[in-house]
Amino acid sequence: MKYGEEHNLEVLFTREQIQARVAQLGEAITRDYRGAGELILVAVLRGSVYFAVDLSRCLEIPFILDFMGISSYGGVSASHGIVRITKDLDSNIAHKNVLLLEDIVDTGLTLNYLRRNLKTRNPASLRICTFLDMPARRIVNIPVDYCGFTLPDLYVVGYGLDHHERYRNLEVVAALK
Amino acid sequence: MAVITISRHFGSAGELIARLVAEKLGYLLVNKAVIAENMRLCGILEPEFAHFDEKKIKFQDGEWDREMEERRRHYLSQLHNFFYDLAIRENLVILGRGGQFLFQDFPPALHVKIIAPLQSRIGRVCRLYSMDESAAARLITEQDRDRETYLRQIFDGDWLNAELYHMVINTGITGPEEAAALIVTAACLRESAGEIPVHELEERLLEQFASPADDGLVGGLLYDAGGNVPLFAHHSEAKFARMLDFYQIKWLYEPKTFPLEWDSEGTVTEAFSPDFYLPEQDLYLELTTQRQKLVWKKNKKIRRLKEIYPDLQIKVIYGRDFQGLLKKYSIEEKGD
């Protein structure tokens, strides 16, 4: 059985479509941040890594690439506790422009926490760039400044998005049926 | 109040059988023509109706039309309201459109699946539509895929799951008259097996799936933004509150009741209390643990709420969305 055949995957965005869209985002970000001061790209682990790598290659301005990870709900025992940072930034973002990179924005719960957390560090600006946006699932309103593709409520995998840690490495985005 | 749902593979004579059953029992046949007429009254006209009716979400060159999706949601809401309102008043034979899911837990309902071998269906489609075999095969594949995906997208259900149906009839080896007779017999047997009082059926249609708060409280007491310990009506609400706590989002549980209807003396006759209020977002959330098929009444209330209080921000998290959320975080929710 070939990789992916145990699930019925329907390709939504091909490799070429993704590359073209990421390049467009890169152009827009380059245009917006050119001459605007130091830029720090904050990629949220682990899903946005593929997007961050491809997008950063499309930028024609200097930047620092950094990573941040937080725990997921359900990832801790019975009491669940509260969200915690599993990997903090190596950079000091105070007075610098921060662009938060996400693989997908759906409920907005994770992003809401990250946004509030990063704002306390006093960046010069904080914007959000997501590869996928699923507004139908939104619980908390979050302003998305750059968006690759908008999707209806579908379970999708590939290009960093996983299903029980599978399919992250697909070069396409597919709906898991 | 009797409901027979007939799900059918394209070309399996499901429509003909549904018509025969409706005629024999004197039930109202709810097919494409009836639905189209009702949708027309709701302002959903052709070609929009044809675009939505049993059709999956489509992407155009990798783009998804958000406005079209809003219209599609409106269509589905109107369609399911129509089924529900009709089922209160009439005996129905519902052809396709997810009837087996909408009325899954409605005890008097009889759910039937009509299937047939591909070759038999190709032959029937060739005759009906005067087309050659390859065109018929393509049409069958396309129609079945549309219906299958539609049901998965709307109800998260697999129409091939035989457990959904009381009967699966193969019209490759059963004629339409015989199939209709089998269904009529089954319907009569079910009817005579036990009559359920009308008021009880109505209650079941409007079932709230409410159960005492229990496993949502595992992990200690929950405190709202005011430091109070709310008494949740449903364990899912407690689970949801715990998730908001996890992400450090302040919440209040049912802090406000909004009047919706008044009598001639100004006394409130209907009101609505959204489950959660997020003060930092100035947002009300209504969490419904009902399955998609039983949310019409709540949807009506929320529509009324938005009419009377247009500035109020409210979002509804449906049962399917909530289950998806729990699935995303790998938490198993007990069935309601």
Description of the structure:
The complex is a heterodimer of chains A (177) and B (336). Chain A is globular, with a radius of gyration of 16 Å. Chain A has one domain (15-152): Rossmann fold (3-Layer(aba) Sandwich). Mean pLDDT of chain A is 89; it is low at 75-80. Chain A has helices at residues 15-33, 49-57, 109-119, and strands spanning 9-13, 39-44, 64-70, 85-87, 97-105, 125-133, 146-150, 156-157, 173-176. Chain A is an alpha/beta fold and 177 residues long. Helices cover 22% and strands 28% of the residues of chain A. The longest helix of chain A has 19 residues, at 15-33. In chain A, α1 packs across α2. Chain A has three helices and nine strands. In chain A, strands 4-3-2-5-6-7 form a six-stranded mixed beta sheet, with helices on both faces. Chain A has a three-stranded antiparallel beta sheet with strand order 1-9-8. Chain B has two domains: 3-205, Rossmann fold (3-Layer(aba) Sandwich), CATH 3.40.50.300; 215-328, 3-Layer(aba) Sandwich (Endonuclease, Chain A). Chain B contains twelve helices and eleven strands. Chain B has helices at 14-25, 32-41, 48-52, 66-89, 99-102, 118-129, 133-155, 176-193, 198-205, 235-246, 296-308, 319-328, and strands at residues 3-8, 28-30, 92-95, 110-115, 167-170, 252-253, 258-262, 268-272, 276-278, 283-287, 314-317. In chain B, the strands form three sheets. A five-stranded parallel beta sheet of chain B has the order 2-3-1-4-5. In chain B, strands 6-9-10-11 form a four-stranded mixed beta sheet. The longest helix of chain B is centred in the first third of the chain and has 24 residues, at 66-89. The model of chain B is unreliable at 205-219 and 332-336 (pLDDT under 50). Chains A and B meet through α3 of A and α7, α10 and α12 of B.
